[in-house]
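Sample intake sheet
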Amino acid sequence: MSLSTKKNAIVGQLGGPTSVVNSSLSGIIQEAIKSKKINNILGMRDGILGLMTDRIVDLEKINSKDLYRLQHTPSSILGSCRYILKKEEFPHLLRQFERYNIGYFFLIGGNGTMETGRQIEQYCKKNSYQINIIGIPKTVDNDLCNTDHAPGFPSAAKYICLSVLQGGRLARDMQSVDKYVILQTVGRSSGWLAASSVLAKRKKVDAPHLIYLPERPLSRKLFLSDVKECIKKYGWVYIVCGEGIRWEDKSFIASHYSQNNNEIEYGAMGGGSAALNLHKIIYQETNYRGEFQITESLSMCAIDRVSNVDVEEAYACGVRAVELAEEGISGVMISIIRANSKPYKITLSFVPFEEVALKIKPMDDKYINKQGNFVTDEYIKYIKPLVGKIPKYYELNFKKAYICI
């Protein structure tokens, strides 16, 4: 809706951070400062909680040099939360909007954040409060619907890819000690991030050998068969799995065998770990030594491995959000539309909150092989332009390197 008088804008970061969420914030601030319709740009400390408890910061005072630095700063500089507003709290929220003269509300987050935005917009409409609310997408596990991908995912994918590229060489070089390595990524409901590890692979012998995704239930028998086949063929095996992978009976693999590990915080899977439990299964079956690795939230803040495409797109989403709000558009999330993969090109659009809120986007069937233990060439075409160049390391040709006496 078009606002009759000049109002303030406020922005918040909700949910888990990413390597580029501050780039979106920088785009919002810079565009809001230029705006002739926005009076001042404010920030909420710790997400929606900051607005509810008067922890508000003035973002307009940040100079251009620091805004550039902000664009290249990891994690969520304003702080975040996973708080769900209660119905009885909405009247107080509305009073806070009135108190701070808020006419533009920007929320950077995932599907839960878009549900919060949807509820707030509906409440404001019902109570005749004029406000334009725009969502800016953000998630590392890429499960947001109606967008080609979410800002934050390309950088997290690059982090996983480089971890497997380097960790895979370690596993290969130490195969006389450890016969298997299992790396677990973030991804409770979708395998986009685990699948991105495929870019570490150039030859069949390279890691990863097996990729298991939440989209495909796993059979213990077939899993052990896959593992034994790889060890027989290569002498070792490197496995990547999403944290939310399940058995054929739909139970989480992370929940099995975890009763003795409840004192350890493994993340979102209730004190369990899929990688740890798969490690135990392999050991019990083969008696081989191996190890498991859990990246957990490290992929959410690794600016040293950031995707340049990700930084640029996150910033552009922030800018576009302000432009839409100025145009009187409300109740939508910025959406990335892929126009072309080679050369890579996108356009920015928007979708109603209702088409994103609390919905989860699984990987397409065309991206997963029939066996359910790896990805297809179609997925490689999808992910490659998002991650960018991957280093190529030196290989020693042992057939030519041996000295015979």
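Comment: Residues 7-151+306-355 form a domain with the Rossmann fold fold (CATH 3.40.50.450). Confidence is low (pLDDT under 50) at residues 257-269.
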